[in-house]
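User: tokens in, sequence out, please.
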């Protein structure tokens, strides 16, 4: 049986717990940034696979494209929404989810012999020097993750940072979309 004092204490405890829980909304829900969507490995393969090129047992076959027609294959590059902790090169869980699909794609038979450039980009928020260092550190972080987690040969992936020097044309310089990692298929050497 509750006494009047213990009933009030219990009600107070429940109310305090409710307030604490209601203030424990995940930070991602409070941010203005929408949650990233993961691009699947097959879409990545199609985007990174050089147009009109097929590799068979060491031979490279390039399809002849009729004048005016578009070649099959992808553009040889893809922009991925790789999220990092604020002002950091630490990969978030969302970034690791996207990198899992990228790692699978880079290990696929269609891309297993190709080399890639990981290009880091930032928005125009902050100084140019800081953004350059941050984008380089982020690109290197992605490269290291792929090499360690997916056993991709280090010679197949290089990393560079562009800071805010190569903005996407359809977005404001400080827009979230400018903060991205671009994966580019390098020409055969």
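Assistant: Sequence out:
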């Amino acid at each position: 049986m509750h006494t009047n004092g213990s009933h009030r204490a219990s009600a107070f405890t429940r109310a305090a717990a409710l307030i604490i829980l209601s203030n424990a909304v995940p930070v991602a829900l409070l941010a203005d940034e929408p949650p990233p969507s993961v691009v699947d490995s097959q879409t990545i393969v199609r985007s990174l696979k050089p147009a009109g090129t097929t590799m068979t047992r060491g031979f490279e076959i390039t399809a002849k494209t009729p004048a005016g027609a578009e070649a099959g294959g992808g553009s040889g590059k893809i922009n991925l929404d790789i999220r990092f902790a604020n002002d950091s090169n630490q990969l978030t869980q969302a970034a690791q989810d996207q990198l899992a699909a990228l790692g699978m794609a880079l290990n696929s038979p269609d891309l297993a012999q190709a080399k890639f450039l990981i290009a880091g980009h930032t928005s125009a928020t902050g100084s140019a020097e800081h953004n350059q260092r941050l984008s380089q550190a982020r690109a290197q972080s992605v490269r290291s993750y792929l090499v360690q987690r997916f056993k991709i040969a280090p010679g197949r992936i290089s990393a560079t940072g562009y800071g805010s020097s190569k903005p996407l044309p359809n977005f404001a310089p400080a827009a979230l979309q400018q903060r991205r990692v671009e994966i580019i298929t390098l020409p055969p050497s």
